[in-house]
Amino acid sequence: MSTQLPKPRLLDQLEQQFWQYQSLSEPIHAPSPTMEDEVAFVWRYKLAVERAAEFKRIQKNQQRSEQQQKLRQFFCRAFEAELGRLLAQPEGARKVMGIEVAQLDMLELLLDPDGDVRRLTRCIELDPWLSQALIRHINSNRFEFRRASELHDVQLAINYLGYEKLCQLIPSLVYEHWSWSPDQSQGLHQRKLWRWCRLLKSRAEYWLGEEGIGGDSARIYACLFALGPILVHRQATHLYQRMRGEWMNQARLEPEGDLSEGLRHLRLPCEPVAEHLQRHLAIARRFLEGVGYSGRFLRLLTALEQPWMQSEPAARALSRAFGEVVYLTLSGRVMKQEDGLEVITGYYQIPEARVRVLHRG
């Protein structure tokens, strides 16, 4: 099989549907009746003397709907331009999200089978957020080996956990730090992001094992693979809330309240977010280059952007895991039938029987 296998156009379209699903805002269950329905209602149930006034109201509602549609289009264009500008500034994103090069070096250290526990301990102690997160986890109810007395010293916490459990815990804490933002909405988008990463991690464990890589590395690789979607997700939600607040404040100065009413029903634009999510590998690579990181993860992201059959084993495993996630998401939540998804299993060389068993499970 050729190592320069190009990606089919149909596969690009399917992956675009997958990312559109990932970027959809919360549904609004308030279908607006059409003008024909309202006119029929007027003629059937209203008296003849009320018809003229009712028809004017319908016309006004129609005009308001058209104005709101134009407002949504204008907001979407402004949102798309500003989101592209923000994602092209890695240093600004690093300050907002708190992603440090030391955290990437620490994840890279965990992949070393002969890891240095002293160096790992120093990395944790030098990261204030990670130290606090580790203490909170050990003292919380979700930790199965919780002590009767709480721990407050990082060194004691590391000694209590041990090196193996610490290596299993750190990727989850780092992913939680990257994806969580207290001052932003954590609604449907956040749940989808966590579900996507959990599914990717479970599929990566299988394919990494097929490539001869230990299953514990799946947490680290899945965390890195999710860096691009996390960047897009957090920048998009933060920008949406900021722009919507600014526009609402400006609309309150208008003499009529129609503009403010239209802005109140605005939702996060799906199309620009989906387009950037589809380029998440390039966004993550530019971010790592922008913050001055030059380790092995940068080479891995570069390999993931190439035709996957010529990549290193970890890149091939992550590509196949991502292909499975796209297949299962489309077949289970987006498309009503599985017909037409064979291009995914064919391009990523995934046995058809495997994804069908996973889908039924």
UniProtKB/TrEMBL annotation:
SUPFAM superfamilies: HD-domain/PDEase-like. Transmembrane segments: none annotated. It comes from the Bacteria. Pfam families: HDOD. InterPro entries: HDOD. Residues 96-297 form the HDOD domain. This is HDOD domain-containing protein.
